[in-house]
Amino acid sequence: MRQVAHFQINNLATAKKQLLHWASRHPVCVYLDSNSYPHQQHRSWECLVAVGAADSFQATAGQAFPGLQAFAKQKQDWLFGFLGYDLKNEVEALQSQNPDGLGLPDLYFFQPEMVVGISSENLHQLTIFSLIETPERVWAAIQNTIPQPADEPAHSRLLHPRLPKADYLQAVEAVRGHIVEGDVYELNLCQEFYAENSTLIPLPTFERLNARAQAPFAAYLRKQNHYLLCASPERFLRKTGDLLVSQPIKGTRRRHSDPAEDALIREALRTSIKDRAENVMIVDLVRNDLARHCQPGSVQVEELFGIYGFQTVYQMISTITGTLRPGTHPVVAIRDAFPMGSMTGAPKVMAMELIEHYERSRRGLYSGAVGYFTPAGDFDFNVVIRSILYNAANHYISCQVGGAIVYDSTPEEEYQECLLKVQALLDVLGARLQA
Question: What is the pLDDT of residues 246-268, one digit of tens each?
C-alpha cells in the first residue's frame, strides 16, 4: 500500500529541477515533463517522476505484451517504462536484422518505489506516492537536492551517418517506386547518426535539450547504463477512463526569428497539400487502429490539421478519440495500435517490411514509446522522437530522425527535413555531422 501526501511548492521551475536531479541519482528512473505547453489538451500532469524499481518486467518480442499484461494485473499499481519499435515483430510476422548499438530490451516496465507528481490543475502542489519511505522523508530528500549547472558541452563530437546521403536519396526514390506500384501510400523512412567510444554526461545534456525544445512530452529515462533524453512533441496514446486519445504528427517547418516571416511559414504549412495528404493518411490509419477496440461509431477526429508552434518548429497535429469497449485490457488497446502509424506509414505491415529493407539501423526505442500506467489502468505514452539514446557501458550515442515519404516527395527536400530535425540534437551534444 502506498503512502500518499501532498506538499506545497513555491516555485515550479525550482521544484522540477530538484525533482530531475533527485531522480537522476537513482539507477532506474523516469522523469516526464509537459513543460507547461499552453496548447496541449488531454493532460493530467505537468511533471511526473518515478524512481527505484520495487519490481520490474522486461522482454523481447514474442510474448512481451502478454507478459506485461500479467505483470500489470499482478501489481495493479503505478508502472513506468517503454515499448520499443521492434515489438512489431510480435504484433505482426516481421523481423529485425539491422545493427543495434544500444542493446535495450524491446519492452521494460518497473513498479516504482516512489512516484512524485505535479498536477497540471494545481502547479503549486506536489504529490508523493511512496512504497518504501514516508512521503515526508522523500520530500525532504528532494528539497535537499542541490542541482548542478548544465554546462555547455566541452568538445565537439563527430556523428556518422549509418545511411550516407547518396544512399538515403536512392532509398527515397526506391520508396517512391513502391508508392507508384501501389505497395504503400506513405512510408516513414528514418536514418541514424551515431558516435562510438564517445562519453556523454546525460543529465546536463537532457537539461540543454529540454530547455531548447520545451516539448510537451519530454522524458528523461535511465535504466542502469542506458539513457533516453527525449524532447518529443508527439503523443502516441492516452487512456483516461474509457476515453482513448491519439495525436499523430505529420508536417514540419522550421520557425523564423522574424514574426512576419514566421507567420508566412505557419500559413505555408497549414495550406500545404503534401503535408495534409501525409497527415490525413495517418489519421485514417489511427482511426482504424482505435476502432479495433472502441465502441462502434465512437472514433472521431477531434481536430484535423492543427498547426502547433514549438520553440524551433511548427508541426501539423491531428487528434483522434474513441470510447474503449468495456472489458478491453489497457495493454491490449496499446498492442493493437502499436507501432504508431506516424512512424510506419500505410498500409502499416507493408510499410514496416519496407522500412526493415531500406533502413540500416535497428530502431529499438526510437519511434517506440515511453510512459506510464496508473493503478486504475489509465495510461499515457509519447512517441520517442527528437531524442538522444546513450549506452554508457559501450559509450555509444544514437540520434535517429526521419520523415514521411509520399508520391510527390523530393529526395533532397526529405534529406533536408532530416537535417532540420537532428540539428537541435547536434547543438546540445556539441556535435557536427561527418561530411
Answer: 999 999 998 999 999 999 999 99
